[in-house]
Amino acid sequence: MPWDFYPVEHKVMVHPGESKEIVFYARNRTGGDMVGQAIPNVLPNNAADYFLKTECFCFESQTLAAGERVELPVRFIVDPALPEEIGSLSLGYTLFDITDQIKESQALANL
Q: How confident is the model over 1-47, as pLDDT tens digits?
């Protein structure tokens, strides 16, 4: 995926039950419009059920024009029932280029 993509803050402290917002930065480095889809991953795997996203750019595909830069928010809550043995969580995303799939879907819809 030829985008720059990274969190604005690489580490945040969160108390279970507290709502928190973090921001990711994305920039389309290409000369053409692109559509991306982010798939989240929470580690350790057994912590994913306790990481509750209430707002996330990953809920929808993201269209960025050539050279466009955006900030993408994620709002979440860590469930207070998080087991004590889990001292930290890591949130990551994998970005997929879905530009061609979107174009194909739009072409089929116009038939």
A: 999 999 999 999 999 999 999 999 999 999 999 999 999 999 999 99
In sign, the C-alpha dihedral spanning 57, 50, 45, 8 is positive
- Residue 107 to residue 7: CA distance in whole angstroms: 34
> Distance between CA atoms of 41 and 23, rounded to whole angstroms?
16
Cis peptide before 83 (omega within 30 of 0): no
Question: 59-96: buried (b, 16+ CB within 10 Å) or exposed (e) per residue?
Answer: eeebebeeeeebebebebbbeeebeeeeeebebebebe
Rounded to 5°, the CA angle 92-97-100 comes to 160
CB contact set of 95 (below 8 Å; sequence gap of 6+): 1, 3, 5, 36, 37, 38
pLDDT per residue over 76-101, tens digit each?
999 999 999 999 999 999 999 999 99
Model pTM score = 0.88
